[in-house]
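Fill in residues.
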């Protein structure tokens, strides 16, 4: 979902640039499905729009040798991803949380949480998420200048699988119109409550951490997923994609909301 929003923002910004040759990936990396770091430069505006694939934002690592056999991978809830060194000094940061902090996904991965060098075999997903948010808050306080960096935390992006999950035959290709009945929307993700509490806690004094709340409006657009119409070369029997979004599409609205919030803050740079 972070990649969806990043690509949408690139396309929207590029519409205002006359000289398209002045837009390029700084390291020459192709803009294809990517597991690392991408940085698009808008040369005429001295602007970079960067994307970091850090699914948990904290460190995802290999199991310790001494860990029980059911431990396949560990999430270090007290240690931000090493890419965080590159986030310092940014004018705007949008954190995308929630999608990977999923009880079913974490259980299937054989994932357990580690804190202080010790794997905690009893820490559940909600507690791990809370510990992670505390780590993120501490990192922001220690490493960001609130006069320079505007931080947004985006809420959970709804999924719309029918008749199963993503790896159990779930589909959405038959849905061709937005939902019109609010009563039929799925319950809001539990992640959002914790994210909302964090932004309230960080919204004091010099700090103005903003909530980019996209969950409710996005819940109506069950018609806007790639479903079976995925990237070229995808096997016809591959799982449908009912979690990510077609572009142009829903993430454009997320960016319009982001832009509106920046305008309301009278955001400017030199």
């Amino acid at each position: 979902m972070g990649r969806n929003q990043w690509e949408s923002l690139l396309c929207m910004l590029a519409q205002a640039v006359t000289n398209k040759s002045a837009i390029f990936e700084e390291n020459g990396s192709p803009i294809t499905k990517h597991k690392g770091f991408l940085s698009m430069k808008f040369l005429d505006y001295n602007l970079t729009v960067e994307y970091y694939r850090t699914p948990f934002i904290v460190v995802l690592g290999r199991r310790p040798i001494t860990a029980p056999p059911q431990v396949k991978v560990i999430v270090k809830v007290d240690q931000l991803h090493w890419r965080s060194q590159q986030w310092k000094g940014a004018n705007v940061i949008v954190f995308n949380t929630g999608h990977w902090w999923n009880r079913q996904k974490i259980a299937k991965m054989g994932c357990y949480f580690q804190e202080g060098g010790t794997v905690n075999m009893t820490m559940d997903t909600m507690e791990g998420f809370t510990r992670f948010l505390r780590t993120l808050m501490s990192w922001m306080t220690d490493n960001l200048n609130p006069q320079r960096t505007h931080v947004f935390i985006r809420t959970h992006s709804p999924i719309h699988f029918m008749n199963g999950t993503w790896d159990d035959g779930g589909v959405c290709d038959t849905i061709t119109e937005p939902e019109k009945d609010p009563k039929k929307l799925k319950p809001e993700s539990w992640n959002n409550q914790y994210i909302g509490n964090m932004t309230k806690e960080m919204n004091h004094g010099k700090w103005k951490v903003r909530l980019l709340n996209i969950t409710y409006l996005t819940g109506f657009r069950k018609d806007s997923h790639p479903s079976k119409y995925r990237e070229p070369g995808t096997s016809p029997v591959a799982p449908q994609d009912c979690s990510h979004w077609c572009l142009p599409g829903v993430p454009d609205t997320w960016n319009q909301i982001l832009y509106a919030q920046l305008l309301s803050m009278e955001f400017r740079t030199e």
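The chain has a mean pLDDT of 93.
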